[in-house]
Amino acid sequence: MPVINVKLPGPTFTPEQKMQLVPALTDAFVDVLGEQVRPFTFVIIEETSQNEFGIAGRPMPDPAWLISDEYKAIYQKAEQTIQDYLDQQGQGS
Questions:
Q1: Which of 1, 12, 33, 53 is the most exposed place for a label (fewest CB within 10 A)?
Q2: pTM for the whole thing?
Q3: Are residues 31 and 15 in the same domain?
Q4: Do 18 and 34 reside in the same domain of the chain?
Q5: What is the number of structural domains in the chain?
Q6: Peptide bond into 11 cis (omega under 30)
Q7: Residues 85 and 69 in one domain
Q8: Rounded CA gap, 90 and 41, in Å?
Q9: Main-chain phi, psi angles of 90, to 5 degrees
Q10: For 44-79, what is each residue's pLDDT tens digit?
């Protein structure tokens, strides 16, 4: 039984938006795996409260940090690491 588990920072999305995700995610899954999985596909949408998640090792929410030079440097380092790997594989841009 396929389970699609979506975790959203909350409260951010309306109940209507979350319910629109259920058929859309199910359809996307069925597009890949075939119609036979539709009756067995579960979609679980969970909201994670503020201060119960983090990014790049930093507790959130901290929107100012996400646009800081420190975060940009972390992000750019990750991009470079991925690019270096792709270059080594002959798949670089």
A1: 1
A2: 0.64
A3: yes
A4: yes
A5: 2
A6: yes
A7: yes
A8: 37
A9: 75, 20
A10: 999 988 778 888 888 876 778 888 999 999 999 999
Alpha carbon distance 76, 14 (integer Å): 33
Residues 76, 69: Cα–Cα separation, whole Å = 10
> Domain range for residue 4?
1-49
Q: What is the CATH number of the domain that holds 30?
A: 3.30.429.10
Q: Are residues 61 and 93 in the same domain?
A: yes
Site of tokens 């983090």: 54
Query: Residue 49: which region, alpha, beta or left (left: phi > 0; alpha: psi -120 to 50)?
Result: beta
d(CA 10, CA 44): 15
Q: What is the 3-state secondary structure (H, E, C) of the chain?
A: CCEEEEEEEECCCCHHHHHHHHHHHHHHHHHHHCHHHHHHCEEEEEEEECCCEEECCEEECCHHHHCCHHHHHHHHHHHHHHHHHHHHCCCCC
